[in-house]
Amino acid sequence: MATVVIMPKVDMDQETGTVGQWVKQEGDSVKQGETILEIETDKVAIEVEAPASGILSGILFGEGETVPIATTIAYILEPGEALPSGAKPPKAAAAPVPAASAPASSGPGPGSNGTAKRTDWEVPVTPVARNMAAATGLDLSALHGSGPGGKVTKRDVEDALTPPAADANRYGKVYATPAARRVALERGVPLESVGGSGPGGRIQAADVEAYEIAVPEPVTLPPAPLAAEYEVVPLRGMRRTIAERLTSSYQQAPHIGFNLRADMTKFNQARAELNGHAEKTGGPRVSATALLVKIVASVLARHPWLNSSLQGEEIRLYREVNIGVAVALETGLIVPVVHKAGQKGVAEIGAEVKRLSTAAREGKLLPSEVRGGTFTISNLGPFGIEQFNAILNPPEAAILAVGATQNEVVANDSGEIEVRPIMRVTLTVDHRVVDGAVAALFVADLKATIESPVLLLL
User: Fold this and answer.
1) Catalytic site includes residue 303
2) How does pLDDT run across 279-304, given as a tens digit for each residue?
3) Cα dihedral 335→447→273→326 (10° resolution)
4) CATH class of 3-77
5) pLDDT (tens digit, 9 = 90+) per residue, 218-230?
6) Annotated domain spans of the chain
7) Is the pTM of this model over 0.90?
8) First vs last Cα of the chain: how many Å apart?
9) Domain 237-457 has CATH 3.30.559.10
10) Catalytic: which of 144, 255, 303, 431?
């Protein structure tokens, strides 16, 4: 019996998933538990495993397509088993629809030069495009694919099925498919002189090719305006989520920032002592980020309004301190969360930050590891950034932007000039929730604890 592969739900608020890439292809043998494709949700990329062993067949959605959760996206069949009724990809059409055949009056069309006309199954085509063509009776062999290697895509099928009136609205009085327009532009063929063989006289790519054979004289067209070369990157997956969430955050939440300069002398000494102890005992080294997470968690426990969020008509003051640590990836920014950070030691926090950062870069974060944050730390110090303002990570009410530690000339309490390691940080808060005085008290407490980590013992 055929086993269905569905778009899985991996997050509580997930409604759709995007097909990242098919690791296994149509007709491949798969084993239960083997990864067959990768999907992208709003937050993480997930590997989907085969629910059974057999033959992967009937792939319904291609890479980059967004699919509602619980929708069937493919089947796994036993050897020799056929797809369920209504799910089988189309066979070659017994008789091509007349509108898709090449014109007889404009010159030789596909197959008229002695070569055999391709059947539907010989046409390179995406699974979705093949299913659409089968449902509408469209002859795939008459289409000019716009995908890589001439592959027929969903867009090509949609364009072939678009009524002439719709094409007129888009392009004017000449009814032609996008493929036909592209071929005409490449070869200098005036579309208004080409007879169309498609529905309602719509010009197909084959019509343009046939016209060029019949009228070989080149037609001089005005040169197209030069455009700068560029690469198209679709706004989807993580990048789209970042764009939507941060735009919403910046538009809805009134941001207000507070800058501070912290003397890192004692902070660095404390970290050096902790790492010295780790070397003696064989424990993990403590990063500056880990120690900072511990300090922030300790201070937040005394300032609950900074550990909060505005949800509709209520302000939520969280009892637990769950600190997100922003991690930069090639595809965007992700914020894994150290849960219950206030209840963990520095070494435990350090090990967890390292594990989460590694999982983020390898694309192996679990949905639960990016949910539930109550405060975020974004550290660009390792990149040499001295100071910056961060946008709130919704729905959190505060975020701390950490810059690089730089040696600066300062005056000590005695008025003498010294060189000290100084770190600049900026606290950004949602002014709907956090008043300026409340934020200032938090900043003062944070500065004191960074400059004297021994206060963590109080």
Assistant:
1) no
2) 898 888 899 999 999 999 999 999 99
3) 10
4) mainly beta
5) 556 677 666 678 8
6) 3-77, 98-214, 237-457
7) no
8) 65
9) yes
10) 431
